[in-house]
Amino acid sequence: MQILLCYSTDVTLPRRYPLLFNPKAHGEKAQKAAAFIMERATRFALYATSSPAEARDLAAKFAADGEPCVLAAGGDGTLNAVVQGLVGSNTALGVIPAGTMNVFARELGIPYGNLHKAFDVIEAGYIREIDLFQVNGAPFMQMAGLGFDAMVIEETTWESKKMLGPLAYLLAAAKILGEKPPLMKLRTAEGREEEGVAVLAGNGVLYGGQVPLFRMANNQDEVLDILVFHEAGYRLVMDSITGIARGGVDLAKSVTHLQSAAFEVTCDEDFPVQVDGDLLGRTSHALFSAMENRLRVIAPEHPMVSRFGEAMNAFWTWTRKMQGKS
User: Fold this and answer.
1) Distance, first Cα to last Cα, the chain
2) What whole-number distance in Å separates Cα of residue 124 and Cα of residue 301?
3) Which end of the chain has fewer CB atoms surrounding its CB within 10 Å, N or C?
4) Are 263 and 230 in contact (CB under 8 A)?
5) Which domains occur in the chain, in start order?
6) pTM for this one?
7) How far, in Å, CA of 90 to CA of 95, rounded?
C-alpha cells in the first residue's frame, strides 16, 4: 500500500515575535511567565539569554535585521538590557512584565498583573515614543539614582532578593541608614548648582514599583525630573515619606526639585550609580544627557487613568495594608 503525504502551500503561519527571556529567573512571577510563554509558544521565537550582555547583543541583531519589534520577558533590568540593543533603531520594545517591581510597565499602563492582557497590548500594536536618557553612556528608560538608593541596591544580594523579594531592599536600607554619605555637587546645563547626599533622576512618575516619586515627570517632555536630597539617614527617609503624604517628595524642605535635559554630578569620593534598578558601578563623575533617538515601545493607546493618579491610589492602598499588619 502506498501512502501519499500531502502538504498544503496555502497555510498562513501566525506571526512569531522574537522573545528574549532569562531562563534562570526564579520566583512566583517567573514561574507564571514561563507557563504563559509555553501556553503561547507558537506565537514566539524564544531566545533564552545567559546574561544582560547577550540580551543586548541579540536585541541589537534583531534591530539591525529590521525586525519591527522585540519582546522582553522580565523585570526592569532585563528590559534595560534589551533597550541598550535597540538604541537608535526603529525596532519597538514589547513588554512581558515578569519582574519583581515592573516599574516601567506600570508607568506605561501595561497590565503588569495579567500577562494575557499585557500580550493583548502587544497584539494591538500601538507604538508610543518616549524619551531616552543616559548616564556615562549607559541608557535608562525610567530612572537613575546616585548615592543612597544605589547604595541600597549595592548592598542587596541576589540571594536575599530570591528569598525575600522587595523586603530585601528594606533590610539593606536599614543596614546603611546610619552611614555618612559623601557630599555630591550637581550642576545642570542651565548653570543651576546644588549639593546633596543623594540624587534621583526620573524620566517617569514612578519609583520602586508604585511610589509616585517624580510627580511632575513626563517621559515625552525631553527633560529629566531631578530630586536632590540634602539630608542623609533617617531624616532622608522620613522627609521622603512626609513629602509623598503631602502630594510630592519634592515638597519636603530637605529636597530640591529641578528639571533639565543634561547635568553632571561630581564628588571627591566614588559613589554608586544605578540605572532602572540595577547597579551600574561606582564613579566620582556622572554625566547625564538625552539620547539622540527616542525609544519606541508598544503600549496601551488609552490608559484608563493618569500614571500619577493610579500610583497614588496604589501607594495609599499599600500603606493601609501595611498599617493593618502592624
Assistant:
1) 78
2) 9
3) N
4) no
5) 17-131+294-302 (3.40.50.10330), 138-290 (2.60.200.40)
6) 0.84
7) 16
Residue type, 98: A
The amino acid at residue 164 is: L
d(C-alpha 205, C-alpha 116), whole Å:
25
Residue with cell 536632590: 228
> Within the chain, where are the H helices?
28-39, 52-64, 76-86, 103-108, 115-124, 148-155, 158-164, 167-176, 233-246, 307-325
pLDDT per residue rounded down to tens, the chain (326 residues): 444 443 444 444 457 999 999 887 777 778 888 899 999 999 999 999 999 999 999 999 999 999 999 999 999 999 999 999 999 999 999 999 998 789 999 999 999 989 999 999 999 999 999 999 999 999 999 999 999 888 888 877 666 766 766 676 777 677 777 778 889 999 999 999 999 999 999 999 998 877 888 999 999 999 999 999 998 877 777 877 787 777 788 888 899 999 999 999 999 999 999 999 999 999 999 999 999 999 999 999 986 544 544 545 555 454 445 445 44
Q: Which among 224, 86, 78 is positioned nearest to 95, based on CA atoms?
A: 78
The three-class DSSP label of residue 17 is strand
Q: Is 323 helix (H, G, I), strand (E, B) or coil?
A: helix
CA angle 128, 133, 134 (to 5 degrees): 145
Distance CA 299, CA 130 (A): 11
Best CA proximity match to 47, nearest among 30, 62, 64? 62
Query: Cβ(72)–Cβ(23) under 8 Å?
Result: no
Give SS3 for 74.
strand
Looking at this protein, which amino acid is placed at residue 308?
Answer: F
